[in-house]
Design a protein that fits this description.
The complex is a heterotrimer. By secondary structure, chain B is mainly α. Chain B has helices at about 10-20, 25-30, 40-50, 50-75, 100-110, 125-165, 165-180, 185-195, 210-225, 225-240, 245-250, 255-290, 305-310, 320-345. Chain B is built from 14 helices and no strands. The longest helix of chain B is centred in the middle third of the chain and has 37 residues, at about 125-165. Chain C is mainly alpha-helical. Chain C has one domain (about 1-310): MetI-like fold (Orthogonal Bundle), CATH 1.10.3720. Chain C is flat. The mean pLDDT of chain C is about 80. The chains are: A alpha/beta, B mainly alpha, C mainly alpha.
Chain lengths: ~375, ~350, ~300
């Protein structure tokens, strides 16, 4: 079965003077049409970098150093920038975290919206798809006017009022919530297949958050695109996602449907995340996850979460676990989980030892990164 | 490390071993915490690792040390007109490493005479030592100008920023007016007038410095501090509304405590960087003024006045212009790069 | 939006006017602070002649009256007659000399803006590559060289050694070769400054979120640079244009002397050495008004280009 988007063993690193920062360290997931996928993780877990890798908008010195990203079967890694530009904003769009700084302050939003359409409209026109349209009075309708109409229609869809006046205004004249709506309009104006939303609500008030999420959901129902939502907020995931991938230190540690993850978490990190949500009903103590986030220069030899894990075993410090299915709609990467399978006789000894042999350690990565880090000190 | 490949016993043994719980110590070993450093240490380290900044620092250090030490044992003084006593014109306009008549006699009879490294000027004064003194003047002016700017600008800006309100508005309007004046014109004007109006300084300890220098200092004190004042005021305004100031006030901190503990340290880096970049600008201005004859009074040389004199004899003795010119350029360049290096290392507003 | 632009312009005009009054006042009182008056250095003047001269130039009136009179006439650009150059009105001397200085200054300024923004943008786009480093080295060095050094070096190399250009400035009508070296000298510092300014501002802009958005929309690289980036990165250059003008004026003081150009800078210097006070005052005020006017135009332009700017 072919998926809309197939990410396989993606590795993205930043080559800085102090060493190689492995932001994305072997991420694989698939996205199907009309699905809403949530990628959850702390700051620094590599979720945004994954999104930027898909869009190929990594800033220097970031580079995709391994793996593949296939959109409708077409390989995106290594695609020339010109080809990629045709897909960006057109077939795959992205909206960012802070809408206040994401729009060019010296152009009106109308100008920027129309630009989003015109870039890709021109490309279509070149292919000979252009027809001369005439309106009621027989006057030729210019491409730009068509684009303007589309832009206005999109603004209406995202809930902006007084559209004609708004089109002529500058970004600084809007509030955060409205700007995010405009960003959504701009991303969807060419009706892409995939929308990536990188922490779309983090910079907004809670009440506006809810509105934006509702908006995303309703637009998705109308336009039928797939969405990847990147967030650190499990509440956002619970509200609109179908599936969830949980990321830690550049790897996916657990993935599955929302129900499976929320009601049947298997990885200690996921369990920790769920436990740390404050509850209103019982006034129990807050339960944070012990320890500190991973130092990117000194990734542990084994499982990245091991030093903070209450169930950590010797093997966790030696090798990092591969993903294994929990059931049809749920996978996790955890030795403790594998041990529980083995003890419950759900897998044979051979299967277990094969699995263990497949797992590797981070040895090589650690020494290289560690050495360079030592030099920099 | 393979677990139980072909050895069922091996697997069991390994399994027992590797699937036992890890202790806290073992977990902690995996975690390498980077040592924390203070802002100062970080900044100094960044600065020291900057090759350009360090080179300039060393060059400037060499220059400063030489202009302090060399005049101590150099046999000629900057205002000594060799040959004046004996009306011996052979000392004038010597090329580098030439000698006047009496000196040649000494050499011929086996004695040694310290060479004139840059020759002499039209009045028979050793040029090398004059350049050294010129550098002294330039660096002294630069340094003192920076100090004046620092004190006046910081005080004015911080008071204006702290008090705020109407006082701030008036103070800043004054700054705006001064800022929009073309400073060179005013400086020239002031220098001309101060030369006329300042009392005769012979006999006072300020004699050596001369009216020209003093007028330059007065002019700097009147005009140059506005940039710094604006900067400091802006910084104070920013900090004033930071949450940690509010937090400090809410636990009872008074004004002087907040100034001491919060405002000054946070402004420090900006102030130092700005002052450091002020020095080359002041040196520039001073050499410019001296070039036009409005700087230090004779016979004290300044790099600018030396260059001006050298201009007249450009075609015959080109080094007379180029030596002070190169000196000015080198000093200003090093100071500029040093200031840039300081800014790269210490400015908290610069993102990496 | 037009309304608050107008308010902004109004506020700035008032500020400029205030500054000009301050300058006229300061210049006037400074000049009068010099003991002895302007005629003391004249040789062979008896007391009656001195009295006549003082009366003729209105110098026997109480100081405050003199000030008011001067203020009134200065505001209409009448600075009175020159004391040293008999028979000529100060304003005429200024304007004649200005006709020579203006083209040099304007060309130098335009060159600085054109080359500065070009090299600065180039350096930013090719960040950390060889060409960026080369441009930075040149501009950092140029900023450290005083104009009189550059002028002297150029004079030495191109006039005395190579003889390509005449050493004594503008000689014949239509012979513009005498303009070349002064223009180059005057434009060096501003070009270097603008290069560094443009480079750092373009780098900031290229790293900003809205450029990332443009890229994510599928905008091509040249369009990102020319449409999105440049308009934002060049706004600091507009703010610098005013002070640049001031620095060109001060540079001309030296350059006109070295290249023997009969421009306003040379007039100013000669007025100072010759103690021609009306001429000194007139020139100072004229140049100051010019600079303030230039700064005002730049501020308004900046506000038009960047609609978010407000007067502090």
């Amino acid at each position: 079965m072919s998926h809309l988007l197939e990410v396989t063993d993606l590795h993205t690193s930043f080559m800085i003077p102090a060493g190689e920062v492995k932001s994305v360290n072997g991420v694989s997931f698939n996205l199907d049409e009309k699905k809403i996928l949530g990628i959850v993780g702390e700051s620094g877990s590599g979720k945004s970098v994954t999104a930027y890798s898909i869009m190929q908008i990594l800033s220097y010195p970031g580079k995709i150093v391994g793996g593949s990203i296939k959109y409708k079967g077409k390989e995106l890694v290594g695609l020339p920038d010109k080809e990629m530009a045709k897909l960006r904003g057109n077939k795959i769009s992205i909206i960012f975290q802070d809408p206040m700084t994401c729009l060019n302050p010296v152009y009106t939003i109308g100008n920027q919206l129309v630009e989003a359409i015109m870039i890709h409209q021109k490309a279509d026109a070149k292919k000979g798809k252009k027809e001369i349209k005439k309106d009621k009075n027989g006057k030729v309708i210019k491409d730009k006017d068509i684009a303007k109409e589309r832009a206005k229609h999109m603004l209406d869809l995202v809930g902006i009022n007084d559209i004609d006046r708004r089109m002529k205004q500058y970004p600084f004249e809007f509030s955060g919530g409205m700007l995010q709506r405009i960003m959504i309009a701009m991303a969807l104006v060419c009706e892409p297949d995939i929308l990536i939303a990188d922490e779309p609500t983090t910079a907004l008030d809670v009440t506006i958050q809810a509105q934006i999420l509702e908006l995303l959901k309703s637009i998705q129902e109308k336009m039928g695109m797939a969405i990847i939502i990147i967030t650190h907020d499990l509440g956002v995931v619970a509200q609109i996602c179908d599936e969830v991938d949980v990321m830690y230190a550049g790897r996916i540690v657990e993935k599955g449907t929302v129900d499976e993850i929320f009601y049947n978490p298997q990885h200690e990190y996921t369990k920790g995340l769920l436990k740390s949500i404050p509850r209103l009903k019982n006034s129990t103590k807050l339960v944070p996850i012990e320890g500190n986030p991973v130092d990117v220069f000194a990734l542990p030899k084994g499982c990245s979460f091991a030093p903070r894990c209450s169930e950590c075993m010797e093997i966790c410090l030696e090798k990092y676990p591969q993903m294994h299915s929990v059931n049809e709609i749920h996978e996790t990467a955890c030795f403790k989980f594998m041990q529980s399978l083995y003890e419950a006789k759900k897998i044979s000894e051979k299967e277990f030892s094969d699995y263990l042999n497949k797992c590797e350690s981070n040895e090589k990565a650690k020494t290289e990164g560690g050495k360079k880090h030592e030099k920099a000190k | 490390m393979k677990i139980g490949d072909h050895n069922p016993f091996g697997f069991q043994v390994n399994y027992e071993k590797f699937f036992s719980k890890a202790s806290k110590n073992e977990k902690d070993l995996q975690v390498k915490m980077r040592p924390s450093t203070s802002f100062m240490k970080d900044g100094v380290r960044a600065f020291v690792h900057n090759p350009i900044a360090m080179t300039c620092f060393i060059v400037l250090l060499i220059i400063v040390i030489s202009i302090i030490i060399i005049p101590i044992f150099y046999p000629y003084s900057y205002d000594l007109q060799l040959g004046l006593a004996t009306s011996d014109g052979s000392y004038n306009n010597l090329s580098p490493f030439e000698y006047g008549t009496t000196e040649q006699e000494i050499i011929a009879s086996g004695g040694s005479v310290f060479p004139h490294i840059f020759g002499t000027d039209s009045l028979g004064r050793d040029y090398f030592i004059r350049v050294i003194y010129g550098a002294r003047v330039s660096l002294a002016v630069g340094f003192f100008a920076a100090v004046i700017v620092l004190i006046i600008g910081t005080l004015y800006g911080s008071i204006s920023g702290l008090i705020g309100g109407k006082v701030d508005m008036i103070m800043m309007r004054i700054v705006d007016v001064i800022y929009s004046l073309p400073d060179m014109l005013i400086i020239i004007l002031l220098s001309v007038i101060l030369r006329k109006t300042l009392p005769d300084l012979t006999g006072t300890p300020l004699e050596n410095i001369g009216v020209g220098m003093i007028s330059i200092f007065i002019v700097f004190a009147l005009l140059y501090w506005v940039g710094m004042a604006r900067l400091v005021r802006g910084q104070v305004l920013n900090i004033k509304q930071e949450d940690y100031i509010l937090a400090a006030r809410s636990i009872g901190a008074g004004n002087s405590f907040i100034i001491r503990k919060h405002l000054i340290p946070n402004c420090m880096s900006i102030i130092i960087i700005s002052a450091a970049l002020q020095i080359p600008s002041a040196i520039f201005t001073e050499s410019f003024l001296s070039f036009m004859g409005l700087g230090v009074s004779l016979p004290m040389p300044s790099l600018g006045s030396l260059a001006s004199d050298g201009l007249d004899s450009l075609t015959i003795y080109p080094w007379r212009l180029f030596v002070p010119a190169v000196a000015i350029c080198l000093i200003v360049l090093c100071l500029n790069l040093l200031g840039d290096g300081l800014r790269d290392a210490f400015d908290p507003t610069l993102k990496d | 939006m037009r309304k608050d632009t107008l308010i902004y312009i109004g506020k700035r005009l008032i500020l400029c006017f205030l500054t000009i009054i301050v300058v006229i006042t300061a210049t006037f009182f400074l000049m009068n602070a010099i003991p002895g008056g302007p005629f003391l250095s004249e040789k062979g003047t008896s007391q009656t002649i001195l009295d006549n001269l003082n009366h003729k130039y209105g110098l026997d009136q109480p100081l405050f009256m003199q000030y008011i009179n001067y203020l009134k006439s200065a505001l209409i650009f009448d600075y009175g007659p020159s004391i040293k150059q008999k028979g000529k009105e100060v304003i005429d001397i200024i304007l004649t000399a200005f006709k020579t200085s203006l083209p040099i200054g304007v060309i130098a300024g335009i060159m600085a803006i054109v080359f500065g923004t070009f090299f600065g943008s180039l350096a930013a786009v090719k960040h950390n590559k060889v060409i960026d480093r080369v441009i930075m080295v040149f501009s950092t060095a140029s900023v450290a060289f005083p104009s009189f050094v550059i002028a002297s070096v150029l004079l030495y190399v191109f006039c005395s050694k190579l003889g390509w250009f005449p050493a004594n400035g503008i000689t014949t009508e239509g012979d513009y070769s005498g303009y070349i070296l002064p223009v180059i000298t005057l434009s060096m510092y501003p070009t270097a400054y603008i290069t560094r300014l443009t480079r750092s501002s373009t780098l900031d802009v290229l790293n900003s979120d809205y450029i990332r958005t443009a890229k994510a929309k599928g905008v091509s690289k040249p369009v990102i640079l020319f449409k999105h980036a440049l308009r934002n990165s060049l706004t600091p250059v507009i703010t610098y244009a005013g002070p640049m003008f001031a620095s060109i004026i001060t540079g001309s003081l030296v350059v006109e002397q070295i290249f023997s150009i009969p421009g306003l800078g040379r007039v100013f210097i000669r007025a100072i050495t010759g103690r021609d006070y009306p001429l000194i005052m007139g020139t100072t005020i004229f140049l100051t008004v010019l600079v303030i006017g230039m700064i005002l135009i730049c501020d308004i332009l900046y506000k038009v280009v960047n609609p978010r700017v407000e007067l502090e």
